[in-house]
Specification:
globular; alpha/beta; 39% helix; two-stranded antiparallel sheet; 423 residues; 13 strands; single chain
């Protein structure tokens, strides 16, 4: 082990400059659990949490919080995650019995027909009280600080969107050397992470109710999160493991002689969720590539200025090798009948509607297949993954691997501002 490796290791004996980034994705978050399961098996059995920073948004926030609350044993934490995700049912996330769904539908109908019901206006399409109860019984939030104090974790970051401030707010809990930050429409706020922060981060607009924290209501963290990699970097990570939940292959368009179906509400809703959860990650990865290429000509690949320190960041990206929409379509019959009826009514069971299903299908058959896919994808890159976790530099262009090789949609050459010699 090199001197540099010794300086950057923690109680688990692994490189502690690595940040784990878990973007949102609803039920697709099961894929992230599969990747983590593979990693837990590849690392020594008694390994502690191997990440300096755990950063999660929406469904990713829940997984990040579970890992942080069990930071002393990474394998045990992942086992607990898998136990929940592999046995998921929609009723554990939101009320989906027929009387509740009928009452909700009538409530919204009355509000629309009567021009509003004043303080009795509906707050959201679905009631997610079951998820509050599930997480309250599964996560020991007091143990997060214990893991930080003992050196098993540097920081946990949970991102939500403030409806009042119109800012992306990253709530973080970490060691005293982690400092808050503020940028254009985004900031980091030191706090003690609680259940309210997780529920705010998963509060998909209109679908789940906003959550009040202090004097402001918050919604899904993917809203306004233009820089999903930023929280981990602000909190000290120098290398990133990013587990996304979108397969980049675009859906084939109809042929020239085929009918072009009008987009249903379900298709549009799925499109919105896809943009909400994943577009920010794609944009931020492209930005990271530009920065890395720019810094290649700077001594030490670090730039210091009034903006703070800008450094080269290696990023290992894992994305699904198969289209999750097709997997969701095979499991649609597992959804409770009232939810299927609602999905059919909004066109989510028709052409293109499987995208919406892939985010909302909290049923065990679907989540188990996603866990298996994540496990297989990670094991397929096991050697590269272990090298990355051990601190080996990424040799791919710009220090990014696992993203651009998945789709021809992105150019292999990224225009970048070259650093000119001083005149």
């Amino acid at each position: 082990m090199t001197a540099d490796r010794r300086q950057s290791t923690g109680p688990g004996g692994l490189n502690k400059h690595i940040g784990l980034v878990l973007p949102g994705g609803g039920a697709r978050g099961a894929y992230q659990v599969g990747v983590l399961k593979a990693l837990a098996e590849l690392l020594p059995r008694r390994s502690a949490n191997p990440f300096a920073v755990l950063s999660g948004t929406s469904a990713g926030a829940i997984s990040a919080a579970v890992l942080a609350s069990r930071a002393r044993s990474f394998r045990r934490a992942v086992t607990d995650l898998e136990r929940v995700w592999a046995n998921f049912h929609s009723s554990q996330v939101f009320r989906c019995d027929a009387p509740t769904m009928l009452k909700s539908s009538l409530h919204w109908f009355a509000a629309a027909v009567l021009g509003g019901l004043g303080p009795r206006n509906p707050k959201a399409l679905l009631d997610n009280d079951p998820l509050w109860a599930l997480l309250r019984g599964r996560i020991n939030f007091d143990s997060i600080q214990n893991g930080i104090d003992k050196g098993y974790l540097g920081a946990l970051a949970i991102t939500a969107a403030g409806y009042g401030s119109e800012r992306s707010v990253t709530f973080y809990q970490g060691s005293p050397d982690r400092q808050p930050w503020e940028r254009v429409r985004r900031k980091g706020r030191s706090t003690r992470i609680a259940l309210e922060h997780l529920m705010a981060s998963v509060a998909v607009p209109l679908v789940f109710p906003p959550v009040r924290i202090g004097q402001e209501y918050f919604g899904d963290g993917a809203m306004r999160q233009a820089r999903p990699l930023s929280p981990a970097l602000h909190l000290g990570a120098r290398r990133l493991l990013v587990i996304g939940v979108r397969n980049e292959a675009p859906e084939p368009l109809p042929g020239p002689d085929e009918a072009v179906p009008y987009p249903s509400f379900g298709r549009i809703a799925g499109y919105i969720l896809d943009a909400l959860f994943m577009d920010g990650l794609s944009s931020d990865l492209e930005n990271l590539i530009r920065i890395n290429l720019m810094l290649e000509s700077v001594p030490g690949r670090v730039m210091q200025g009034e903006f703070g320190q800008l450094h080269h960041t290696d990023a290992f990206i894992l994305l699904p090798s198969r289209d999750l929409r097709a997997i969701a379509a095979r499991h649609v019959q597992e959804m409770p009948r009232p939810i299927r009826t609602l999905m059919r009514g909004v066109g989510a069971l028709n052409y293109g509607g499987s995208q919406l299903l892939s985010y909302l299908l909290f049923e065990s058959g679907y989540t188990r297949e996603l866990i298996e896919l994540g496990y297989e994808d990670a094991m397929g890159r096991r050697d590269d993954l272990l090298d990355f976790m051990a601190g080996q530099p990424i040799q791919s262009p710009a220090g990014i691997t696992g993203w651009r090789d998945l789709s021809e949609e992105y150019s292999q050459r990224v225009r970048v501002l070259k650093m000119a010699d001083t005149v």
